[in-house]
């Protein structure tokens, strides 16, 4: 039987998603060892992109699984996480190594899908590009901790809601249950990889935009999704601050003034946080030079 040599370019599959959904656990399960740290604590765990090499199937095909930091991280903004992933994708694109598939993990335990998470879904779609979505598997996790009927109901909503996974599924992405109840999820993980490995390699939309079109991260479509909301939040916060100030100027009622002063304090704190995020963003704007250096321009 023909075997694949060690020097052969490996198939690459990246794993992305929010923090704590089980990305590193998935990779550890496939490799049947615990190379990657996982955390039971409330803090996010993976801070950098990490590659894990293994041999796949009877043919011993070289395979590279790419673990990524989770969105909604307890110590990094989503922009920071996107920047870390984008850097990795640019480097690998320039090294001539291409992805064969992407797994997006989502925990079925989440009782609500917040606006920030829905934004990550949209960002992820833009990161991949519509044409590549047939090489995307959306894997739901944590089935063992939710009542089956409830989990199935949530899964149905995830599939049918236009602000959740419906747009990606309509464009060819596949949604599967990654259940850990049987063999700790080993065969489930194998099925997902097996499905993705049938495809040829692809260029993600964000790779094309960063490398071929030489865009900077904030003006890629994925970057814009994250920035758009940030700018909108900033505008809303400033408008509300102005309105509160006007009300304060026009009322003499003691109780009302105390209430408004409290609200102003909260809004000022929120403005400070948004300001920090915008500063972070301009840091990534300067990455034009980082990518230019990388491109040798
Ligand atoms: N019960 C249960 N626990 C899970 C499942 N998937 C992951 N876990 C646990 O969830 C915790 C976090 O898992 P990780 O693999 O570190 O999650 P991650 O997505 O890599 O998180 P970040 O690195 O922070 O982005 C660990 O304690 C895992 O054992 C699952 O399907 N069911
Ligand atoms: Mg992790």
Automatic annotation (TrEMBL):
Its cofactor is Mg(2+). CDD domains: Ras_like_GTPase (cd00882). It comes from the Eukaryota. Residues 227-284 form a coiled coil. Pfam families: MMR_HSR1. Residues 13-76 form the G domain. One of its GO terms (biological process) is protein transport. It is found in: Membrane; Plastid, Chloroplast outer membrane. It is a single-pass membrane protein. The keyword Magnesium applies. The keyword Manganese does not apply. GO terms for molecular function: GTP binding; hydrolase activity; metal ion binding. One of its GO terms (cellular component) is membrane. Keywords: Chloroplast, Coiled coil, Hydrolase, Magnesium, Membrane, Metal-binding, Plastid, Plastid outer membrane, Protein transport, Transmembrane, Transmembrane helix, Transport. Its main location: membrane. InterPro entries: GIMA/IAN/Toc (IPR045058), GTP-bd (IPR006073), P-loop_NTPase (IPR027417). PANTHER family: GTPASE, IMAP FAMILY MEMBER-RELATED, TRANSLOCASE OF CHLOROPLAST 120, CHLOROPLASTIC-RELATED. This is P-loop containing nucleoside triphosphate hydrolase protein. It comes from Rickenella mellea.
